[in-house]
Design a protein that fits this description.
Blueprint lengths: L3 E4 L2 E4 L4 E7 L8 E7 L6 E6 L6 E3 L7 E6 L4 E6 L8 E8 L10 E4 L3 E6 L1
Parallel strand pairs: 2-11
Antiparallel strand pairs: 1-3, 3-8, 4-5, 4-9, 5-6, 7-8, 9-10, 9-11
Length: about 120
C-alpha cells in the first residue's frame, strides 16, 4: 500500500506564496511520475503540474505557468509545489498523485492519491 500525505496548505493573501509538500510512503518513490491537481466544489479535478521520476522534465497548466514550480527530492520521497503570486482563483483543495505514464495530465492516468490540502487565497 502506498500512502501520499500533503501538507503546507493554508490561508494567504493574494500575491503571497505557499509551498506544498507531498511525502510518499514507498521505497519505489523514484519510479513514480508525480503530479499536483486541484479541485473546487464547482469544478472537476484540474491538472496543475507534473514532474518526471528523475526530476528532469516538468509540465504545467497554462493558468499557473510562471507562478508555480514543481520539484522533487527522491532521497526524501517528497514532491513540492512552490506557489508564488497567488490569486483568488487558485483557491482549491490541492492533491498530489503518483503515476507511471510519462508526464500524465489526466486524473485517470494516476494510480495513487493523497487526501488533499486546502489552499485559500483572500483578495
Amino acid at each position: 500500500q502506498v500512502y501520499l500525505v500533503e501538507s503546507g496548505g493554508g490561508l494567504v493573501q493574494a500575491g503571497g506564496s505557499l509551498r506544498l509538500s507531498c511525502t510518499v510512503s514507498a521505497r519505489t518513490f523514484s519510479s513514480f511520475e508525480m503530479g499536483w491537481f486541484r479541485q473546487t466544489p464547482e469544478k472537476e479535478r484540474e491538472f496543475v503540474a507534473v514532474i518526471r521520476r528523475s526530476g528532469g522534465s516538468t509540465n504545467y497548466a497554462d493558468s499557473v505557468k510562471g507562478r508555480f514550480t514543481i520539484s522533487r527530492d527522491n532521497a526524501k520521497n517528497t514532491v513540492y509545489l512552490q506557489m508564488n503570486n497567488l490569486k483568488s482563483e487558485d483557491t482549491a483543495v490541492y492533491y498530489c498523485a503518483a503515476g507511471f505514464q510519462v508526464l500524465p495530465t489526466k486524473p485517470r492516468d494516476y494510480v495513487c492519491w493523497g487526501e488533499g490540502t486546502q489552499v485559500t487565497v483572500s483578495s
